[in-house]
Amino acid sequence: MKRLIGAASVALLMFTAMPAQAADKVVLMLNWYVYGEHAPFYYGKARGIYAAEGIDLEIQEGRGSAATTQAVAAKTADFGYVDVPTMMRAAIKGAPVLATGVLLQTSPMSAMGFVDKNIKKPEDIKGKTVAITPADSMTQIWPLFLKKTGLKESDFQTVAGDGQTKLNAVINGQADLLLGYVMDQSMKIKDATGKDVYPIKFADYGINMVSSGIIANSDYVKANADLVRRFMSATTKAVEAAEKEPKAAAQSILDANPKGGKIDTLTQGFELTIPLYRTAETKAKRPFQVTDQNMTETVNLLVEYGGLDAKAKDNPKAFYTNDYLPKSGS
Q1: Under CATH, what is the fold of the domain 24-106+210-318?
Q2: Which tens digit of pLDDT belongs to each residue from 222-239?
Q3: pLDDT at site 208
Q4: What residue segments make up the domains of the chain, in order of their start?
Q5: What is the pLDDT of residue 121?
Q6: What's the whole-number mean pLDDT along residues 102-109?
Q7: Which pTM value belongs to this model?
Q8: Is the pLDDT assigned to residue 115 strictly greater than 70?
Q9: Which terminal CB of the chain, N or C, has fewer other CB atoms within 10 Å?
């Protein structure tokens, strides 16, 4: 009996001495330098939501959606948060990437200027100067906005430059408006000037296409199906938690990166992002549950106006999957 008790004690000691299973290290690369839109990822990490799914999350800033897509395709980042149409352009050319969740299902594209300029509808753009960045996603869709609103290129002037030049043009009065995202460039202008910006949203004039989402390498997804499910489960919960506490979510950015911005504009930028998560069809669903119709319409718009290869229309479902998203209530 003593021997049996002794053996049981040794077995118990060995069991309790075994370390807990290590969390899976996961690298998420953002589309750009951190701003309010990214709050859920930082909040999910700070709240232990990723840790609860057995994930040790590292968040890296990006240098554009194209560069992040390349990193994911090359497996130097496990997941990317990028402009999904940019990912589509890479995928149609052979990059092994797909979206495992589309978060922004309503377009954030807009033409924006200072509130005191009183430019609030397309008709007000006539006679004004618009700053653009040639070949970026917004400039490619701009002709469709003009068509939808009855504007002609002769109705206004344009000045062209990179992203910072475009911002400077509006800040310094060289342009009345710029093409930008409602939760991004508008906050950068406000940070620089303290002045509010009014966006004329493309989506309000019948141009609705998806924007940012989570992407992964196709081979990585196949080889790590359980990890992908856990990551998407954690990210879904992180978005839902951040929606309920926008300021706390924005603060988590500054806690991780004290030079990541100002709390007021980070919060406002994130609050401007939340309405973009769902369409009328997905308003009752959890984040990331994009519809086939929304994705198909996005592909069709990109083929016609955005330079996407026409063969993309053959199989829009090749660009995304909802299979790794959590079910309702889970």
Answers
A1: D-Maltodextrin-Binding Protein; domain 2 (3.40.190)
A2: 999 999 999 999 999 999
A3: 84
A4: 24-106+210-318, 109-205
A5: 97
A6: 96
A7: 0.88
A8: yes
A9: N
Domain 109-205 in the same topology as domain 24-106+210-318? yes
Span 179-188, pLDDT tens digits: 999 999 999 9
Sign of the dihedral defined by the CA atoms of residues 67, 221, 108, 303, in that order: positive
